[in-house]
Amino acid sequence: EEERMAWWEEARFGMFIHWGIYTVPAGFYKGEAQTNSAEWIMNKGKIPISEYEKFAAEFNPTKFNAAEFVGLAKQAGMKYMVITAKHHDGFSMFNSKATNYNIFDATPFKRDVLKELAKACQEQGIKFGFYYSQAQDWHHPGGLGNSWDKNIKRVSSDEYVYEKALPEVKQLLTEYGPIAIFWWDTPREMTKSVVDSLHHITRALQPGIITNDRLGDAYPGDHKTFERNGPRYQPEIKYWELCQPISGSWGYRSDDDNFKSIPTLIRNLIDQSSKGGNYLLNVSPTREGTLRPEAVERLKAIGTWMDANSEA
Ligand code: JFZ
Question: Is this prediction's ipTM beyond 0.95?
Fold first, then answer.
């Protein structure tokens, strides 16, 4: 365990990326601002599956450049990257073999951005990992969390896991090179056998992988994930990270001007690392595949501070 966690413990700083087709509505549905983070819009707006699917046809982030993205993370002093492979909306941001509801088959873009990022990370020496919403899936009829779409003919959550989650997780762990992290999210009631399968497959296919504590109660994972404000110093927790969005929302929304100041971001980074934790700072690419200038400016400023204060 110690050996597996060695790089992670030294890393201190990583880039979290929430990206999906929710960047098309970007916080607004039928002209109305929806509450919460942008990636929750399908839920907050009670958008039927057949309506939400239409955002895929409009998602064409042609300005996306993986090498530039990874370069920016590196310049900021980040050592790892975790991106949403599939969020609660059920849309797969890679060329999924389990469903056509993915960035390769269902958008005009027809590129696998996770492949591109995996390659760029490997070239530039950044550890690469996936966020995966294993329980909530608002698109699959067996996925958990969609209570508003009455047109779904429900199937069991086991069926969803065997048809979609497990095959996708397997694909992500076998076709994208070395995967450093699997970042589960929002555990919900699922049968023990499927949770076991999800757990075992990660370690079996990528022996060095690190997982967080959000798969299910039975599995504490390798590290604890905190949100918003970091924990008080808790020496009994050895491995932990604070994840936080650089602005107000995880996913991009057009009205989000709530960027944290550069001093705040640097202070947060120092605060976590001084207590022995990592800081996983989230950025939100737009529907074009770029970051807002406010985010770029902040990442570069952190990098300048890093350079000025590092010994090497
Ligand atoms: C979850 C997601 O629902 C959200 O969209 C985002 O991806 C975030 C990183 O994770 O939201 C959570 C999960 C856990 C807590 C808060 C928000 N928590 O434990 O306080």
Answer: yes
